[in-house]
Amino acid sequence: MDVNYDGQTAFDAAANGDFPLVVLLWGMAMAVQPQSVDLLAAKDKSGNTLAHYAAAGGTDTVDTMHFLMQQMQASRRENLLMDARNDAGETPFIRAAHAGNLRLADTLLRTGFVDLMAQDKQGNTAAHHAAAQGHLWMLHFLLEAEQRQKIAASSAQQPVQPTTLGGYCHKRRNVMHYACMSGYKPMVQYLMTRGFEAKEADADGTTCLDVATQRNLRSLQDLLTDKVKASDPPTHMRKTRGMVAVLHGAPLLAILATTYWLVWWISLPLIVVVLWKSLSAFRQPHGHGHGGHSHGAAPKKNNANLHPSKRNVSVAPNVSLEGLAARSMAPDQENSKKKKSRDPASVGLHTLRKPQPETAMGIWMAWVGLFTMMYIVLWADPTYRDFSHSHAIFLGITGGVEVVFLLVWFRLAFFCPTDPGTITTYEADVKTMLEQAGRAETPDATKFCRTCLVMKPIRSKHCSQCGVCIARLDHHCAWINRCVGYGNHRSFFVFLLLHFTVLIVYAVLAALVLADATHDLHAERVKSEGSSSGTNDSLSAMDVWVEIPSLVSKHLLIIMVLLWDVMAFGAITMMVNQHVNNIEKNLTINEQMNWKRYTYLTQPNSKSKSDEGKKPDAASVEPTLSNPFDQGFRKNIAEFFFRSGSAAVDYRQVFALPLRDSEISSPVGSSAMSTSSGNTDLSDVV
């Protein structure tokens, strides 16, 4: 194509959704002498027209398509160009379905010149392309449109072929086959609820279960074999495997325990090596668990906020599904080397080969076990008999505090743990979103979670470790192996305070033990040397320094507990301080760390660095934190600790910001939070 502007052709402009540039290039083409250029008939090397590029563009905008349709109508070539095919037999409608451009597909379908069931050279329809790419809303729109056409034809007494919705390709594959190839579980669930048969085989005899098995898609295998109901939510809270935590913690505890019975010059190096390897697990991705957004088709990159000239959308010459089918159906060398996928809930020695979600919990349990071991040793070892008798009350208090602490932890992590605030509105939300898609209204991707298929309340977030969306998510805690959110934040704060208290108590206990041991060692040294000096209770710094080697060799367990206690105390102190400050300000840790990502927490800084008298550049204006949930110290505290009364807010049902004082006329409204979801988008971005 010879007509271009600044290096961009009409094909580029149509793909980028740059409507003004398309009009400009159209005018330039009409002005070419001696013969104007017919852009409607122009094709690239693969036979794609401007309509193909506009349909497969990076933004689901219809301005360019409407303009092209007007030109087709003016030239009376709608029936020829609207359903034009490229070299692969793909129509603009098929390209729109493949790209997930719902509004464009609806615009094309409304013209009446588009064949809904048009097939490419492999016999794949638009519905097949939508299923293969994981475009659930597009697939629902196409199946509903096909069903309406069949009902209309039946009412008009026209012949209707009794075939499966979406049709079959030349290899007898339907939308169910391609949905399984995409690996997008919600789409497979949707098709099963519509009555699609999972056991139906294609021309090669391959069923959907075969596809899931060859690709090691455990979630699809359970779904297709009826182990999981198709009507259930696509995600669920990952369960903590206590035995896995024990398997990871027990070896570390065994090595830490060598400080009690093994010589220090063997025990210490061993502990350092194992600790280094254990802590490295925190920096590695988990080899198990529910990836928060692992599904067949990733969400499309949002190009709407970019200037059209910067979108740089690349349109493929064709979008044949044969490559996807070949990768999914044929035995893959990489997959053939892999063992059969294990049950995610399975427990065994195989879980020790790579980090697990419970690894951090196991490490934490090992250190708690070491503290408990020291406590038991103080009571049982004759070496500390005098100390246990003289400090029996303090030891009793220490044991009581630790028991309460462990009970709270066990309640949070294992025994009927409080729900952190899981969003459980899947059934109602997916129905609403499907109704919108049936009307060619694409659900706002910023207002719902594509993995859980639920509408996201404000301050909620999807946790990739837990696998679900959590209301008012604070953070994911490795110690309890679950999220801290709206439902369990108060209990976790109590747990944190108890953790803080336990560390203080054990630090004092270890210090007392070492002080008593130092006096005893010094007394033995003085007695062995036959000297009468230094027998008083006070010891000089030099006296303590002299006894350090003996302390390390005879009381390494106590020293190890004290050293780790001091380090952990610093970390816990910062955590407690962070939580207290956030509670006072009505912030979450997620919001505190990522506030620039959330529009409801940001506002432009009025103090711009630009010169006076000049309009500040939007790119140079730094945003500032503006928390609309901060109602003052007392109200923030009351909201956090109370779940009933006027101060309580159920963040599982809050979809809009609270009204500010300047926006209300009634004092009661200052703390009211609307549950309407029809307001401006304020949801978290997953």
Automatic annotation (TrEMBL):
<keyword id="KW-1133">Transmembrane helix</keyword>
<dbReference type="GO" id="GO:0019706">
    <property type="term" value="F:protein-cysteine S-palmitoyltransferase activity"/>
</dbReference>
<feature type="region of interest" description="Disordered">
    <location>
        <begin position="604"/>
        <end position="626"/>
    </location>
</feature>
<dbReference type="InterPro" id="IPR001594">
    <property type="entry name" value="Palmitoyltrfase_DHHC"/>
</dbReference>
<dbReference type="Pfam" id="PF01529">
    <property type="entry name" value="DHHC"/>
</dbReference>
<comment type="similarity">
    <text>Belongs to the DHHC palmitoyltransferase family.</text>
</comment>
<feature type="region of interest" description="Disordered">
    <location>
        <begin position="286"/>
        <end position="309"/>
    </location>
</feature>
<feature type="compositionally biased region" description="Basic and acidic residues">
    <location>
        <begin position="608"/>
        <end position="617"/>
    </location>
</feature>
<keyword id="KW-0677">Repeat</keyword>
<keyword id="KW-0472">Membrane</keyword>
<keyword id="KW-0812">Transmembrane</keyword>
<dbReference type="GO" id="GO:0016020">
    <property type="term" value="C:membrane"/>
</dbReference>
<feature type="transmembrane region" description="Helical">
    <location>
        <begin position="392"/>
        <end position="410"/>
    </location>
</feature>
<feature type="transmembrane region" description="Helical">
    <location>
        <begin position="492"/>
        <end position="515"/>
    </location>
</feature>
<feature type="transmembrane region" description="Helical">
    <location>
        <begin position="555"/>
        <end position="576"/>
    </location>
</feature>
<keyword id="KW-0040">ANK repeat</keyword>
<feature type="transmembrane region" description="Helical">
    <location>
        <begin position="252"/>
        <end position="276"/>
    </location>
</feature>
<feature type="domain" description="Palmitoyltransferase DHHC">
    <location>
        <begin position="444"/>
        <end position="596"/>
    </location>
</feature>
<feature type="transmembrane region" description="Helical">
    <location>
        <begin position="361"/>
        <end position="380"/>
    </location>
</feature>
<dbReference type="Pfam" id="PF12796">
    <property type="entry name" value="Ank_2"/>
</dbReference>
<feature type="region of interest" description="Disordered">
    <location>
        <begin position="665"/>
        <end position="686"/>
    </location>
</feature>
<keyword id="KW-0012">Acyltransferase</keyword>
<feature type="region of interest" description="Disordered">
    <location>
        <begin position="327"/>
        <end position="351"/>
    </location>
</feature>
<keyword id="KW-0808">Transferase</keyword>
<protein>
    <recommendedName>
        <fullName>Palmitoyltransferase</fullName>
        <ecNumber>2.3.1.225</ecNumber>
    </recommendedName>
</protein>
<dbReference type="InterPro" id="IPR002110">
    <property type="entry name" value="Ankyrin_rpt"/>
</dbReference>
